[in-house]
Amino acid sequence: MRVVIDTNVFIGACLGRGAANAVVAACLQGRCTPLMGAALFAEYEDVMGRTPLFQACRLDAGEREELLDVFLSRCEWTRVYCLWRPDLRDEADNHLVELAVAGAAECIVTRNLRDLRAMELRFPALRVVTPEAFLEDI
């Protein structure tokens, strides 16, 4: 199963949150194939650099960096050649849909259902799901 893992899910895994943790573990175990593109990679790097976000984190900075490196090694790099602009409420989230379409992903795993499900341009084969719903699928 090809999936796009939103940044909020990866950060949730770093913070030790159950379902997010299990989603990232499933990626590391090869139970699904996470897609990665330039925009999502830049977002991961940006958010991982926000030190105050990780004050209550179970992982130190080095461990978080190592987890990201291992996760990236399991990702399939996907180039986005066509910008679909699904017109999401948060313009900064459009890249998730574009990556999913470019990589033929079955779903986007996110905690941001409200914004992502409100896209005007629909892709019938693409589902937007929570980490909990994703875990039920695999």
Description of the structure:
- The protein is of the alpha/beta class.
- Helices cover 46% and strands 12% of the residues.
- Strand 4, helix 6 and strand 5 form a beta-alpha-beta unit.
- The longest helix has 14 residues.
- The chain is globular and about 40 Å long.
- The model has no long low-confidence stretch (mean pLDDT 92).
Supply the key terms:
single chain; 138 residues; alpha/beta; Rossmann fold; 7 helices; 46% helix
Please specify the SSE layout and strand pairing.
Elements (H helix, E strand, L loop, with lengths): L1 E4 L1 H8 L3 H11 L4 E4 L1 H11 L12 H14 L1 E2 L16 H9 L4 E3 L3 H4 L10 E3 L1 H7 L1
Parallel strand pairs: 1-2, 1-4, 2-3, 4-5
Helix pairs in contact: 1-2, 2-7
Average pLDDT number: 92
Q: What assembly state would you assign to the polypeptide chains in this entry?
A: single chain
Extended strand count: 5
Reading the helices and strands in chain order gives EHHEHHEHEHEH
Structural class computed from helices and strand pairing:
alpha/beta
